Amino acid sequence: MKDVTPLTEGWTLRHGQDRLPAQVPGCVHTDLLAAGVIPDPFLGLNETEVAWVGRRSWTYATDVSHDSRHERTDVVFEGLDTAARIVFGGRELGTTRNMHRTYRFDVTGPPGRLEVHFASAYTEAEAVRATTGDRPNVYPEPFQYIRKMASSFGWDWGPTLVTAGIWRPVRLEHWSTARLASVRPLVTVDEGTGSVEVALQVERTPAGADTILLARATVAGETVETRFDGDEAVLRLTVDRPRLWWPRGYGDQPLHDLDVTLLDEEGELDTWHRRIGFRTVELDRTADAQGSGFTLVVNGERVFARGVNWIPDDVFPSRVTPERYRTRLGQAADANVDLVRVWGGGIYEDEAFYDACDELGLMVWQDFLFACAAYPEEQPLRGEIEAEARDNVVRLMSHAGLVLWNGNNENLWGFRDWDWEPGLAGDSWGEGYYLGLLPRLVAELDPTRPYAAGSPWSGSWDHHPNDPDHGTYHSWEVWNRQDYAEYRANVPRFVAEFGWQAPPTMATLRRALPGENLAPDSPGMLHHQKAEEGNDKLNRGVARHFVLPEGDFDRWHYLTQVVQARAVAAGIEHWRSHWPVCAGTVVWQLNDCWPVSSWAAVDGDGRPKPLHHELRRVYADRLLTLQPAEEGGLVLAVVNQAATPWRTVVTLRRLEADGATVSHSTHEVTAAPRSVARLPVPPGLVPDERTAKEFLVADADGLRATHFPVPDKEFAYAQPSFGIAVEPVPGDGGKVDVVVNAHTLVRDLLLQADRLSPDAAADRGLTTLLPGEQVRIRVTGCGHVTTDDAAAALFCADAR
């Protein structure tokens, strides 16, 4: 039986004439940080102080002894970042130039010193650029010339911290006769019968060249065995009426152990284990009266995807543990998310990420790693890209949650709209990957899943790549230039990216910018704002709705949070109300990789912004939303994504700012399962915007929608008045209830719990109260809280 020895101890990092202790897995930056050589690049302006690290070459080393009874010993690197030369016992084993691949080298023989010499990623990228010629991209960094996490070169939400190191585990594998070199499970369901076809390839030692090999596979109580034909074998298992894996909100997520064993006549040689789920997934791109769709269909059920985009959770991804994956993805699930798109400028994530998604019922849309650049199709990149794609398709295809392979992020769009085409003058730019190589590889290796050429992509060059009527659509004009009300201007078939910025929470800012007198344009705030004209866009977004506060950072911070939450909610409510024409929204973005002003719902320290709470509301199975009607007036959309009908009574109230009722009515409404019912608002209930003091409220089953016809700065708010009480939760000293009783209209009340304690969290975000209403806010992790403490952490939009 194969033996495995992890190589995690005894590593050193050469820094000039010194050798520093090194952690493996890890990277140069984390080792230098642990040794006190560099400051924390996430704090203040320190990012600029450590830029030299990415320009240097580095060497990791450890002594390896392997007293093994086996015929062969390999050293296996699951991830090397990136351009490396591997030496063992003074003998060069090989070179690497791809962060996203696994590498294996034969080290059979006497013990020796294992050294991994990393060149600067800049040096490697510039050498490739000199060979292939220059290509355009959206940032002045050479990320498309090296198969490395593109965002480590910086992005409009991320720092430029160009890493190097052994970023994933490394181990010795000792084996004899043969080993499992590739295991590729194809899981399907047809008319109630589950099928698992397992394609195997082995590698043999010279002594095992003629050995008769057997393979055995077991799943859900079924076992089959077969004999190898040369170095390949296929096992086929059938499971009668298996329980199906469903996305969260549609059913359960049963997972089954799939075990494969390689044997010869003397016994077991190697084993392989994964968990699989039985389900079918299709992508319906059928043409219709509105254009051509983009609807995920799981187990025959058409799904409105409630999605978020995922970026690497740390610019140093070796620091992301399984527990951290579980926490962050748990935050997605808590926000009623059912799809996570792994964006193409990051990494193929660790197995722990996909395991958590399988268990939580989170569908995974997986980009191949191309983003916002023209990529040469010549060598040495083309061979690396094919090997990388093969490696990761096979590695990830066992996961039930993985529902879509996607060729790239924004490159087809960029070719057409970002002035790439004239400058390229016929040079390759990646089209051959997205429309040729990658779909062929997916069809060969994983035909059980759909493939899309890119995001956005209309399905063919017959339409503009970012045509809202065809395929996937990215909505960025709104954030860049317009008010968020413009999200209602169209009904795309699937919105794969859109979003609005806000700063991190206050506790995160105080940790990241210690001692700074915080202001929107203070040095640290500007440094931790990477978007082009980011603060100008934040201010424009606020100024369209509120008087822009001058010299009041707390108020500015709160209002940017409000506008972010309102903007994203406006888009989702509009697009959900037009299901099934629109079949999904994927918010940019769930998470951050460091403390930064960004589009994230969860900031770089893992603290939810108000947007996270708002996602929980607008992504819930049942949603009320008031929308402008095409023919004028308003319509109430009763959105029901649940499996059962929603029969309810809706109360509509036309109110004045002081809470007085102008008119009201009640309506019985039924929304069928997975559908939207639309109720025109009677004309007598539509607020008169000329008065600047009327608004509309819709209530049903504890859910509420509001419509204010004019911006906040034009609305005739009374000075907000509310009472505050703090009630300890019996039996738990770490929890309190902050109880707010509204005496007037209180719009978008927010308790910023992190102002009470960095570890505190509230169970709700923005809340609008009518006069006489009460809200109870549960706060955890806060310790003792006084009424004055709570008052200082409470904000509302209608405050003067």
What's the structural blueprint in terms of helices and strands?
Layout: E1 3-6, E2 12-15, E3 18-21, H1 28-34, H2 46-49, E4 58-64, E5 72-77, E6 83-88, E7 91-97, E8 103-106, E9 112-118, H3 121-132, E10 170-175, E11 178-190, E12 193-204, E13 214-219, E14 222-227, E15 232-240, E16 256-264, E17 267-276, E18 281-284, E19 287-288, E20 291-292, E21 295-298, E22 301-303, E23 305-310, H4 322-334, E24 339-342, H5 351-360, E25 363-367, H6 381-396, E26 402-406, H7 411-417, H8 420-424, H9 431-445, E27 451-452, E28 472-475, H10 477-481, E29 494-498, H11 506-512, H12 523-527, H13 534-543, H14 553-576, E30 584-587, H15 610-618, E31 622-628, E32 634-640, E33 646-656, E34 661-671, E35 675-680, E36 694-700, E37 703-707, E38 722-728, E39 735-742, E40 746-751, E41 761-762, E42 767-769, E43 774-780, H16 787-792, E44 794-795
Helix pairs in contact: 4-5, 6-9, 13-14, 14-15
Number of helices: 16
The CA-CA distance between the termini, in Å, is 74 Å
Helical amount = 10-25%
* Mean pLDDT across residues: 97
Which strand order spans the largest sheet, edge to edge or round the barrel? 3-2-4-9-6-7
> What is the total tally of β strands?
44
Form type: globular
Spans of at least 5 consecutive residues whose pLDDT stays below 50 are none
Largest sheet: 6 strands, antiparallel
- Structural class, from secondary structure content? alpha+beta
Rg (CA only): 28 Å
